[in-house]
Structures are given as C-alpha cells and as structure tokens.
Design a protein that fits this description.
Length: 211
C-alpha cells in the first residue's frame, strides 16, 4: 500500500511538471513567431553615364523590424551605409578598384518635436560631426525611410577611369552599421536577427553603359 501511495503521489506531480514545460515551450515558440526581422532587398541597380562621370541609381525595399523602431523611438540613433565600388578585371592580379563612393545615413527620433531627423553624408557621421552632413526632418518614419530607399544621382567614378574596352563591374552593398551603436547595445543586439540587415549585389558594366 505504501508503494502504491508513493507512485500515486509521483503521478500527480508529473503532470504539473509537464504542464510547466509545455507552457514554457509554447511561450518560446510564440515569441519566435511574433518576432519580425528587418528587410532590405535591392529592387533596382542602374549605372549611367552623365557627362564626364559614372552615376548610380539604387532602389531598395527597406522595412525595419519592430525592435529597431522601438529602439529609435526610445532615443537610439541608427546608422546605415551604402557603398559602391567600380572594379576592373585583371587576370594577372587582384581586380583593380577604379572608383568608389559611400553614403552614410543617421536616422533619429526627436521626442520634443515628435519628428524624425535624417542626416546624409559622404563621410562617416558621428554625433560630433553632424554639421558636415545634409539634415532633413520628417513628420513620420516612412517618409524618412523613403529617402534612404531611393539613392539616385550618385557619382561613383570618373569616366577617365572607366573605359569601354575593358571588363568592369560594380560592387554594391547596403547595411545597418552596428559599430555605430553604443557598445552595450552592440553586445545585446549582436545576435538578434531583427538587427541583421545587409544586402549586396554585383553588376557588370557593358560597353553601352560607359561609352
């Protein structure tokens, strides 16, 4: 009888344990399902010659994860970088870089005015160096992101360095620059996929593009 009673008591405890494990697993799966990642997709990459230079137009599909938007609203500035390199094929050595250009974006929310501020520069942007950038204010986040999504009139190389009788290509990349975040936040967000935003593409230059 003592043995049967002992087993019965154990049997009554086990369902409660299993219930806790099931609930914990459900919450873990639910939180993973609710999590949304940032999205960056390149929908257009078009080089064209204008006068004595090669220009680039890039169009992005860019959506920020709720976690990134929440960090922005709480006062964290987020930085993005767009980079284009014009490369020339060399069979005897590594390919030669004949042109390069970068655009730096700093996006921040201003609680006092309830407006969004976007700084754009050809040089890296720091909190102390905002004066060297072009600043724009927007009433909402989609309007600010629209400027980042559309990168036009971007001078990436001089035509004297780009010739139609050689094989050349453009390397394009756009990413969220985690190195500009405060160090504690870098550590906390480093392994979170919501903050992983990076897109890259390579496009060949044809003779018609550079003639």
């Amino acid at each position: 009888m003592g043995f049967i009673t002992h087993c019965w008591k154990s049997a009554k405890v086990e369902p409660r344990r299993w219930g806790g494990w099931v609930l914990g697993a459900w919450l873990l799966l639910a939180s993973a399902a609710w999590a949304q990642n940032s999205v960056a997709e390149l929908t257009e990459l078009r080089p064209e010659r204008r006068d004595a230079a090669l220009y680039l137009t890039a169009q992005l599909k860019l959506e920020l994860a709720p976690a990134v938007e929440d960090a922005l609203i709480k006062g964290l500035a987020v930085h993005f970088v767009a980079e284009a390199e014009v490369m020339r094929d060399r069979w005897y050595w590594s390919d030669r870089k004949v042109g390069t250009a970068s655009r730096y974006y700093r996006l921040a929310f201003q609680p006092l005015t309830r407006r969004w501020r976007l700084n754009v520069s050809n040089e890296p942007i720091s909190s102390a160096g905002l004066a060297g950038s072009i600043s724009q204010s927007f009433e909402n986040l989609p309007d600010a992101l629209a400027v980042i999504r559309r990168q036009s009139g971007w001078r990436i190389a001089e035509m004297t360095d780009v010739t139609p009788d050689t094989r050349q290509y453009i390397n394009y990349r756009f990413w969220l620059d985690m190195s500009q975040l405060p160090r504690p936040f870098q550590i906390a967000a480093g392994n979170q996929t919501e903050w992983s935003l990076n897109v890259a593409r390579q496009i060949r230059l044809t003779a018609d593009m550079v003639r």
